[in-house]
Amino acid sequence: xxxxxxxxxxxxxxxxxxxxxxxxxxxxxxxxxxxxxxxxxxxxxxxxxxxxxxxxxxxxxxxxxxxxxxxxxxxxxxxxxxxxxxxxxxxxxxxxxxxxxxxxxxxxxxxxxxxxxxxxxxxxxxxxxxxxxxxxxxxxxxxxxxxxxxxxxxxxxxxxxxxxxxxxxxxxxxxxxxxxxxxxxxxxxxxxxxxxxxxxxxxxxxxxxxxxxxxxxxx
Amino acid sequence: xxxxxxxxxxxxxxxxxxxxxxxxxxxxxxxxxxxxxxxxxxxxxxxxxxxxxxxxxxxxxxxxxxxxxxxxxxxxxxxxxxxxxxxxxxxxxxxxxxxxxxxxxxxxxxxxxxxxxxxxxxxxxxxxxxxxxxxxxxxxxxxxxxxxxxxxxxxxxxxxxxxxxxxxxxxxxxxxxxxxxxxxxxxxxxxxxxxxxxxxxxxxxxxxxxxxxxxxx
Lengths: 219, 217
What we know:
The structure holds 2 protein chains of 2 kinds.
Chain A: H1 28-42, H2 48-56, H3 60-65, H4 68-82, H5 88-93, H6 113-117, E1 137-140, E2 159-169, H7 172-175, E3 184-192, H8 193-197, E4 205-212, E5 216-218
Antiparallel strand pairs in A: 1-2, 1-5, 2-3, 3-4
Chain B: H1 21-40, H2 46-58, H3 62-74, H4 76-84, H5 86-91, E1 103-107, E2 112-117, H6 126-129, H7 134-137, H8 139-144, H9 149-155, E3 165-170, E4 176-180, H10 192-196, H11 201-205
Parallel strand pairs in B: 1-4, 2-3
Helix pairs in contact in B: 3-4
């Protein structure tokens, strides 16, 4: 979706402000939100792409005004309601009122801790051949899917060069829609700044994205 | 939650707004309510949530990445392996649990300076660097890093020679990137432990440079 989360190349947000000696969490509730997100993800209630999409779907004015963990909280609560794990009535009551919905991998307990502390793998074997090789010129498709996608707007329609091949991975566009892993070849594609930002761009800059094969056309 | 809660929070989000206590506590109450519901329904054990929070507060931070960098600076065979397959190379160090299968280390040289960003959300090598800082997740960095990286570096007080190519890596998939900064001058003969002390978080994102006379915080 063409949301405000897709920020690459936008102007007007001002300088980067660095907070010296920043703590991991500024308020205790931020840690709880992070932990609830990790834990519910580990129960199999949803996948990482559904989680990302839930935050992208926040209304743009809220997305831009909310702090990071507020966005996580709003996305988390919405997913829990949308997927039937809790009800709006329970949110209003602040207590459980209905029976629990079974979780794919069961409740999150102490023994599950290692699973959230290490990163899972997103590689999925396929019997397909990679369409592109290192050094191939490719063009990002000019597509504007309504759902979740990891092809940022600023590269669409632009030409780049395949620099790395990462194997076949879960395809976020499919996984976020609940349509399965649908593994696709994943490439690092590098662009010149002038290709992306026009003839006045600083020629000493190169930018890469990681692009799934369905995002790319041969040149 | 309607807009009201957010009106006073900037996206770059530091809490210089402690005086808005009532709104903060409103968010706090809502978060607590949600945790109560999840606990009452038996979805999560709150003690396990405590353990997640504690791990991110105390165990997982940029020191993990700093040790990898210091090792690469002192052990050419490890450096070679790291640049070929960072996940595999780091596993051989033993003292890390799995860092995930998709870590890529990118090397700064006099010719190339690397910067990592996630324009779409906040992808970041958590296992190596801990939780990302607020600025990494906020709009100014995410919007500008791919278009004006030299300007972004200037915000950090970092100047990279005009003869050096700037390479921006936008983390748009599950691949995660770690910058291997250049070993600073004046560190000849230093031990791995000494070197670990000067590898800053920002130097592994590409928005900073390690310096022999500046300890990482």
